[in-house]
Amino acid sequence: EESEVGYDEVELLAILEDIREILRGKEVTPTYGACQWPWETYNNEEAIRRRDISLVSGVGPSFKQKLTEMRIGTVDDLAKTPLEDLVKIKGIGGKRARKFSLNSKALISENYICLGLCQFPEKRTEIFLDLEGTGEQVADEELVAMDYLIGVLTRKDGKEEYAPFIAHGLDREGEMFGQFVKWLLKQNDFIIYHWHHYERVHLERLAERYALADEIRRVILENMRDLYRDAIACFVFPTYGNGLKEVANYMGYKWKHPDVNALESIALYFQYVTDPHKNKDKMQKVKDYTEDDCRATMLAKDWLKQNSIKG
């Protein structure tokens, strides 16, 4: 039976037992990225202070437990551990062991490690794409998950231009998507760069929801390039993760509004649609945030190309 706070009896008993163990003196180490507000900042700062093993990209709670059982508890411990010892740990094969080891060494040196050459096609028009959506976590009976802004930064013949396509109401997602598709089909010899799978997944969802013709769908999807895949294939970064924020920040990009993240963007959008005229400043902040993501993606593409050649 579920309690008023949203836990079933088994979960609640497990939480209480964890608390008892802590009271009995069990040491609990912070796991980077494992806590939400209001403990997120404190937890992450503690993990950094302790140089916890979870700072290594890909080492979440499960792998952390396996590594600490082998007395590998810090970034420095991991860097010193021979690969042949890492691969003996259940669930950590040769590829993952090498990745963990290289990332720990990059963190210690504070320098990237180049693994290979990043090559990109020569296209007249480069489009750097970022989508903002409410996400499934806010969907309920009254509010369906939706995408509310498609940001595109175009670089063509040495000139850059940013254009946001916005759903100016909760029922105007289709209108926004239609405007984006109409604009995109006017572009010639283009490639769409994005970071990770979110943009591709959501464009596929939009294409399905609004019955986009198969031929047009292919034109869009076949010209998309995930820079995240290029980045992790060619580089190991001295960062605590491989998200756009972490990697582009390391490369030198600075966001206009450091306080705005994906959840804050959603909150600003909801404030905007309640009164678009009164809350124009809220939407401007969302547009700035999305433009920054597009420009960070462009910087990442250029950085990958330039530094993989150097490497």
TrEMBL record:
GO MF terms listed in the record are:
nucleotide binding
Which parts pass through the membrane?
A: none
Please provide an example of a Pfam family that matches this protein in its UniProt record: RNase_H_2
Stored Gene3D superfamilies: 5' to 3' exonuclease, C-terminal subdomain
Query: Which InterPro entries would you find in this protein's record?
Result: DNA_repair_Rad51/TF_NusA_a-hlx, RecB_nuclease_TM0106_put, RNaseH-like_sf, YprB_RNase_H-like_dom
Domain (YprB ribonuclease H-like): give its ranges: 127-304
Instruction: Specify the domain of life of the species encoding this protein.
Output: Bacteria
> Which named protein is this?
YprB ribonuclease H-like domain-containing protein
Organism equals Candidatus Hakubella thermalkaliphila
Classification from the root reads: Bacteria, Bacillati, Actinomycetota, Actinomycetota incertae sedis, Candidatus Hakubellales
